[in-house]
Design goal:
Blueprint: E1 3-7, H1 12-24, E2 28-32, H2 41-50, E3 56-57, H3 64-73, E4 77-82, H4 89-94, H5 96-116, E5 121-125, H6 151-169, E6 174-178
Parallel strand pairs: 1-2, 1-4, 2-3, 4-5, 5-6
Helix pairs in contact: 1-2, 3-5, 5-6
Bound molecules: nicotinamide-adenine-dinucleotide (NAD).
Length: 185
């Protein structure tokens, strides 16, 4: 059974991903979420829905030492889906440093640990905000990025760049960026 680390597993998208994984695959999700924008009640609801317990490591992924423990205890992690981040556009305008710190430090730590512990797959949850204010819909993979309208969007642009730089020199980790496309505005 493949073990997949879902960061931000107590959050909105992470928890739905865990449920889908439990119900439709034979993979074993484990979570890392410090409940900064969620609570442990999520895992009670996941148990109600799926009948399965999910282990969560309630650590701040910006704390490299604490995050490392997850990998020491689970040396068989086969993939990481990195959802953990702050995601509010207005809050990021008010507190840009908080967003740069949380979203980038946690990403850098997770990539370094993926490399060190030889995790072969890494998916980064980006955002359509990387395209800035666009005139033409729908957005697709050929749409060029333009200036991010918020510090939040900029953390995702920088995150994609970090991933691209990392992938070039780290062939042992296959990386993918994903996001939801806006189909209507
Ligand atoms: N919700 C959307 O419409 C949407 C759209 C595009 C992209 N995204 C991206 O998808 C990801 C998940 O979004 P969501 O809507 O589920 O957000 P969410 O806030 O519900 O979930 C994120 C989770 O990450 C946790 N977290 C944040 N920083 C952490 C840290 N340093 N260490 C450990 N845990 C931490 C929070 O406690 C939270 O439970 C985010 O990266 C977001 O930018 C979301």
């Amino acid at each position: 059974m493949k073990k997949i680390l879902i960061t931000g597993g107590a959050g909105y998208i992470g928890s739905h991903t865990i449920i889908e994984m439990l119900e439709n695959t034979d993979w074993q999700p484990i979570s890392a979420d410090n409940y900064s924008n969620s609570s442990s009640a999520t895992f009670d609801r996941i148990k109600e829905i799926t009948g399965k317990e999910v282990i969560n490591y309630a650590v701040d992924l910006c704390d490299a030492k604490a995050a490392r423990v997850i990998f020491e205890k689970n040396p068989d992690i086969a993939g990481i889906i990195h959802f953990a981040a702050f995601k509010s556009v207005p809050e990021s305008v008010d507190q840009p440093l908080l967003y740069y710190h949380n979203n980038l430090e946690s990403l850098v730590n997770m990539l370094a640990l993926a490399k060190e512990f030889k995790v072969p797959h890494f998916i980064f949850s980006s955002s359509c905000s990387v395209y800035g204010n666009i005139d033409k819909l729908p957005v697709d993979e050929s749409t060029p990025m333009s200036k991010a309208e918020s510090p939040y969007g900029f953390t995702k642009q920088i995150g994609e760049e970090i991933l691209s730089n990392f992938a070039k020199v780290t062939p042992t980790v296959k990386t993918v960026t994903s996001f939801c496309l806006p189909i209507a505005v």
